[in-house]
């Protein structure tokens, strides 16, 4: 072949080769256009042998992106919250100095005989519990009629609350110990009311349930006050009313982490020592931590609010915002101490099986679910001994719900006003306002979304609690 012909063939081959490469580029470009128009995922540019780096896609923070992973921002908020609280704590130390003195406070209470009134209160409410057992035994033996027995139970239950209140009001002012005493008396009142009312139900059932149909209704035996464990027929009859009216049965109920009486409770197989001591350590640590936070973080603002909180709305608002964080941290500690650590400690010690002491109240999108979820023992008592009996009596659901909130408002005002020895109804009206707040939070959650309803519930918690505390503090020192 001539050199000129060879050169022409080589140029033609290179030209065809270049055209094939451009065709490939054009095909890749068209395929990319199809991918972009279909809204595909972000391509892996490092694996592709191309210089195309753009496609149609929205920003991650826009709603069109459907991006949901914002965990980095959540971690940022956690870090910022940590540093913000550390700054507040350091500022508190610089401004007020070190104010924590836990042990001396207990020693001052112990050496003052006037504070021993609370010890007598703990003793006398146990006497009222034994009186309730005696009344029930007399009714079971036929020595007391049903109407007389009910009257005796009502009077005895009311004395459980009234007698400690009178003692606290006659004694010198001691708000913190008296607050604990009144709380215990209210708990005993709820327990003894449940004890009396549940035994009336068991008494009515025991008249109709025999040993034969108890065996046939083994699945329903707990409703007829039968034991949870399977056993022979004689053992089941032994647990029927009035054989449950024993001191051991009564005091198991008194110590159990529940307010609703039953003859038999679900039980665990054994006590777990590690779990038991872990809950006990949490209880002791959180109790000390709460006292330290109150002394170091809350009391200085309370003292200042008592001096200048009533002078102007601006100063009151400043103390309200200053206490909002610290007050709710103390409240969270109290919630964890009581409903997780202490009640689980009692449940483990007594092998009490039902450990549902709270639900996910922190996810509440309305006020109603919050009050149903954050204190399960009280909620169960209200449903069992107040809500359902009123419904059976013919009351409407709306009227019954208002009655439950009214009862709760009276109890809240009682254990705050009596230790302070003054009646101001701040706590009472705070609970009553929950009635109109229920439809408001429900409306916000339905119209704007559950997140807004949840934020409204949180706002009420964060602002409402220190507002009530400051109202009593300013009034107490005025």
Descriptive overview:
Helix content is 72%, strand content 0%. With 478 residues, the protein is mostly helical.
Low-confidence stretches: 18-22, 32-40, 219-237
Q: Sheet bearing the most strands, described?
A: none
The computed structural class is mainly alpha
Q: How large is the radius of gyration?
A: 34 Å
How many angstroms does the end-to-end distance come to? 119 Å
Number of helices: 17
Helix content: over 70%
Number of distinct beta strands: 0
Strand fraction: under 5%
Oligomeric form of this entry? single chain
Outline: globular
Mean residue pLDDT: 79
In sequence order, what are the helices and strands, one letter per element?
Answer: HHHHHHHHHHHHHHHHH
List the helices and strands and how they pair.
Layout: H1 3-37, H2 71-96, H3 102-111, H4 117-140, H5 146-170, H6 175-206, H7 211-216, H8 233-238, H9 247-255, H10 273-308, H11 313-350, H12 367-373, H13 376-392, H14 397-420, H15 426-432, H16 434-448, H17 450-477
Helix pairs in contact: 4-5, 4-6, 5-6, 6-14, 10-11, 10-17, 11-17, 13-14, 14-15, 16-17
InterPro entries: MBOAT_fam, Oat_ACAT_DAG_ARE
Transmembrane segments: 79-102, 114-133, 154-170, 176-196, 280-298, 318-343, 398-419, 456-474
Pathway: Lipid metabolism
